[in-house]
Each structure stands twice: as structure tokens, then as C-alpha cells.
Amino acid sequence: MAASAPIFAPIGAPLYRYPKREQDTLQAWDAGDEYLLQYIQEQQLDISEEVWLLNDSFGALACALDKQTAKLRHIHDSHVSQLGTAYNREQSQSTQADFAFWDCLEPWQGTPSLVLMKLPKSQRLLTWQLMKLSQILPKDATLICAGKVKEIHSSTLALFEKHFGPTHTSLAQKKSRLIFSHNAKTQQQLPAPIRWSVPDYDFEMQNHANVFANTKLDIAAHLMLQHIPKDPSLKTIVDLGCGNGILSLQAARLNPQAQIIAVDESPMAVASAHLNADENLGPAHQVEARVNDCLSGFAPQSVDLVLCNPPFHQQNAITDHIAWQMFCDARHVLANEGKLIVIGNRHLGYHIKLKRLFGQVNTLASNGKFVILQASKRPQAKGN
Ligand SMILES: C[S@@+](CC[C@H](N)C(=O)[O-])C[C@H]1O[C@@H](n2cnc3c(N)ncnc32)[C@H](O)[C@@H]1O
């Protein structure tokens, strides 16, 4: 069991990041959440009917507003955020409101009296969310967004002006600021996914707004593409943290006999991986893309090869715990003699983690910046 997290004053109970970890030094809410809640209270804003929350990472706002609001909609391009919010709602017994999780691509329908946003890290996702909100909300509807002062630049405010409407900000409080924007752009069309090519591999890629490697091939993925094995004995290959699915495309081309499962926690990534498999591999391809938290729910010993270019941040926090979870999950689902191939920045020290888990690790390739490591599951290794 994880140690108890600090109490989140607005709900008088602890709030946890997800997954819950022993001695987590990162907090599940920030000063922007507190500023938004304080503003609502001071201004006596109407939250009795329907409230939409965008990018509420671990449910701080959802838990705080739950009992005061008839309808809450939690909107995020993150399955992990949904899991964390569900967990925190359950812990704080926040179960009274008519509550729903929406991802960013599904239709948003309703008549919210208040829309609150936490500033997302990606400007492309921000733009996309502003444009979608502006289509749905009535003219002059107010959007209130909280963000860290150091992340609110004049270019950020220009995006609100351009894609939503007239915008101003509050004074700073605990290094956070509120952005108020008034809808004046109700007729916008949402942009299509960005397209780019990988001529060396003859791939045409499409990326939805929140997908890693926005407009060009990631340099780590470029190196990894050269080291994906072609092996007729492989039956099941997992692309863990698939993003736009570029590694799955190459794995599928080289291994037409194998089933490829592309996994990501971002619904926009999974939708992009679907689009890219359909466009590059033809209609009868063997790639299945799934929204999932790492490999939870996968059967033990069911996979022959896991390919992984792990993330090194969660929301805005730099952390290696997701990479660790990915390696542990890979070890669990791999069949005996199954292989995990990982690419990472040299300085991240993944070989130490892999050695601890798998007993032995080989270097497949390296350059000045990245290293590709391979670990094999031995029947006698520790764990499982
Ligand atoms: C560095 S990117 C790699 C993307 C792609 N494989 C590539 O090489 O271009 C890492 C990916 O891991 C995904 N991710 C982060 N946390 C995850 C989790 N808990 N479960 C599954 N995927 C996750 C991110 O959404 C992101 O798409």
C-alpha cells in the first residue's frame, strides 16, 4: 500500500496521483486548482447545474465540485487521468453528481454553465480544445483556465484570442494565473490531423493534436526503426506507448505472420495509430490499437516481443516511473525467451532497471544520444 498522500483541503481528504506510489514526492494537484476553486467561491459562480472540466489530471477539480454540481463532465486525452480521477472520486466518496468521462475526440454535448480548464502542455492540444469548445459553447460563454505563470506566454494568450475570443488574465497567485476568455469564434472548423512523410520507409503519417512527434519522425523512433527484428517465429508483438504507431507499421511489414498490438494511454494516439495502419498497411492489416494503461489486463506469458520508446514525463512532471511500470509489465506478459527492446536517452540509465528485472541486458545499437537495449525473459529470472 502506498503511504498516505497530503490532504487536499477543498475535499478534506488525501488526493493521489495515478498509479499510486510509495513515498510519491509529486502532488496530485497544484496552485492552479486551488486558485480556480477559490475564484468560484469568491465570485459565487453558478456551478449548480452542469460543469465541464478539461485536463483535470487526477480529479482534484472533479472531487472538489462533485457534491455542489448536478452534472460533471471530465474531458481529457488521457486514460491514466480517467483512472486516477475515478480512484480519487471513490476514495473521497464523490459519487453524487451525474458524472461522465469524455475523451477529446468524442462528441461533447450539453449546456454547461461553467467550463474550467487546466492549461495543457501541448499548444496543439490547447488550440484543438479551444476550437472545439468555441463550436459548442454559445457566443460570449466564458472559459476559465488555470496555468503556471511560467507557462502562460503572450503566444499562449494569442491562441486564446485567435481560437476562442477576447482574453484577459488575473493577477498571479502562488505562481499561477487564471485566463478568462469569451467565446466569439463559433463558426470554426476543427483542423484535420497533421500529415507528414517518412520517405526512407515509404510511410505517410497522420497525427491527432496531442500525439508525440507532432510533425516529424522522432529521432529515437528513427533509430529504433532500423532495429526491429524480422523473425517468422514471432506470433504476438506489442508496441508499448505506440504514439502514432510508427513502430507497429514497421513491425507489421517485417513480420506479416504476427499479430501487432499497439497500446497507448492517449485516445488521440490510438486513433492516429488506427489511421496510420489503415493508410499504410491496407485494409486487411494485422495491427490492433488499444487505449490502455501500460499492459494492465494482458495475460501473462502471452507476448513474444515488446517494442518500447518510453515516456519520461507524466502530464507536466518529469518522471521515470512510467518507464519502470512498462518494463515490469513487459516482463510479466512476455513468454519465456520473449524479448523487450527499449530505446532511451543514454543518461536515463534504463540498462540498470532492465538488468534488475531481467538479469541480463544487451546493447543492440547506440549513437551519441540514444541506446537500444534488449532484455530476454529467462524462465529462471527473479519475479513472476
Ligand atoms: C516517447 S512516446 C513514443 C511514441 C512512439 N512509440 C514513437 O516511438 O514515436 C511515449 C508514448 O507513451 C505513451 N504513454 C505514456 N504513459 C502511458 C501509459 N501509462 N500507458 C501506455 N502508454 C503510455 C505516451 O502517450 C506516448 O505516446
TrEMBL record:
<dbReference type="Pfam" id="PF05175">
    <property type="entry name" value="MTS"/>
</dbReference>
<dbReference type="InterPro" id="IPR002052">
    <property type="entry name" value="DNA_methylase_N6_adenine_CS"/>
</dbReference>
<dbReference type="Pfam" id="PF26049">
    <property type="entry name" value="RLMG_N"/>
</dbReference>
<dbReference type="GO" id="GO:0052916">
    <property type="term" value="F:23S rRNA (guanine(1835)-N(2))-methyltransferase activity"/>
</dbReference>
<feature type="domain" description="RlmG N-terminal">
    <location>
        <begin position="15"/>
        <end position="183"/>
    </location>
</feature>
<keyword id="KW-0949">S-adenosyl-L-methionine</keyword>
<dbReference type="InterPro" id="IPR046977">
    <property type="entry name" value="RsmC/RlmG"/>
</dbReference>
<keyword id="KW-0808">Transferase</keyword>
<comment type="similarity">
    <text>Belongs to the methyltransferase superfamily. RlmG family.</text>
</comment>
<comment type="function">
    <text>Specifically methylates the guanine in position 1835 (m2G1835) of 23S rRNA.</text>
</comment>
<keyword id="KW-0698">rRNA processing</keyword>
<dbReference type="InterPro" id="IPR017237">
    <property type="entry name" value="RLMG"/>
</dbReference>
<keyword id="KW-0489">Methyltransferase</keyword>
<feature type="domain" description="Methyltransferase small">
    <location>
        <begin position="204"/>
        <end position="374"/>
    </location>
</feature>
<protein>
    <recommendedName>
        <fullName>Ribosomal RNA large subunit methyltransferase G</fullName>
        <ecNumber>2.1.1.174</ecNumber>
    </recommendedName>
</protein>
<dbReference type="InterPro" id="IPR007848">
    <property type="entry name" value="Small_mtfrase_dom"/>
</dbReference>
<dbReference type="InterPro" id="IPR029063">
    <property type="entry name" value="SAM-dependent_MTases_sf"/>
</dbReference>
<dbReference type="InterPro" id="IPR058679">
    <property type="entry name" value="RlmG_N"/>
</dbReference>
<keyword id="KW-0963">Cytoplasm</keyword>
